[in-house]
Amino acid sequence: MTASDQQTKPDDHATFAHVSRGYYPTFVALFTATLLISNICATKGVAFFADSSLTIGPLQILPVITDGGFFLFPLAYILGDVLSEVYGFKSTRRAIYLGFGALILAAFCFWLLIELPSADFYENQEALRSVVGVYPRLLLAGLAGYFVGQMLNSVTLVLIKERTKEKHLWARLIGSTIVGEFADTLIFCSIAAGAIGISTWSDFVNYVIVGFLWKTLVEVLVMPITYRVIAYVKKREPTYQL
């Protein structure tokens, strides 16, 4: 056997592709999971201080009206900020497309699950339908709000970074959140309000304002954590160049 034959001889071990050592796949997975879970949670209308009533002019302050995804959905924008800051718009856009596809796949699977014939012993068909049933209006609201909001969030952050470079990260995080979250909240609420039981103008305004202020407030409160995560990833991401 010649030396060239030895060099081209197949290895005795099975062949596998190498997994990227970067953090991008992890953030995309978390980003997508957050979207899926929060969109299911959003099917429930939530009222805080339901026994109270407070209005200032045309604006209803109490009760506070929101949806069940309020506590988790802001995380999607925080992860989107990390993706945009570290990997840029093109890579973040890819993550947004993947999340968009995952939401459509989930909606299709939930619809198919409900349409499958139930076994005689299964007694939770209506409960299942009420939780994961595919409501076209909610699906449209979630997809439209998510797509527009996340795109604007990423574009805004990257445009600000083009001017500020590595300085003023706080301005990028807050500025992109204000633009993205407002567009997302306004679009989602405008389409979904009736589907979750909001029928008055005051409730709708409350729904939009509370949702927007809450998501923006979360971004500000967790900014120290976002700073640390971004710094950690930048330092250890092999392809990132300061």
From TrEMBL:
The keyword DNA repair does not apply. GO terms for cellular component: plasma membrane. The keyword Heme does not apply. It is found in: Cell membrane. Pfam families: Vut_1 (PF02592). Signal peptide: none annotated. The chain crosses the membrane at residues 27-49, 61-83, 95-114, 134-160, 172-198, 204-227. Keywords: Cell membrane, Membrane, Transmembrane, Transmembrane helix, Transport. Its main location: membrane. It is a multi-pass membrane protein. Coiled coil: none annotated. GO terms for molecular function: transmembrane transporter activity. InterPro entries: YhhQ. HAMAP family: Q_prec_transport. Involved in the import of queuosine (Q) precursors, required for Q precursor salvage. NCBIfam families: queuosine precursor transporter (TIGR00697). Belongs to the vitamin uptake transporter (VUT/ECF) (TC 2.A.88) family. Q precursor transporter subfamily. This is Probable queuosine precursor transporter.
